[in-house]
């Protein structure tokens, strides 16, 4: 059963509410996302599209381009 949200709970730091280990994992993940967001924001559009394409091919989301031969035209 969840506790009702009280002013005392709202004033607690996130690290107390989540537990130290969970909070550190959360903070690490959000710091990494913020860093990635800043890096992507500073990239030129073409670099960004190339990066997305690379990640997509790496994880198999986007198919690898096949060389054109007489068989698969």
From TrEMBL:
This is Uncharacterized protein. It comes from marine sediment metagenome.
């Amino acid at each position: 059963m969840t506790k009702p949200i009280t002013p005392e709970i709202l004033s607690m730091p996130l690290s107390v509410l989540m537990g130290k280990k969970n909070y550190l994992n959360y903070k690490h993940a959000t710091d990494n996302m913020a860093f990635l967001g800043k890096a992507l924001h500073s990239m030129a559009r073409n670099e960004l599209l190339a990066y997305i394409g690379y990640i997509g091919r790496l994880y198999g989301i986007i198919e690898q381009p096949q060389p054109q031969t007489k068989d698969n035209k």
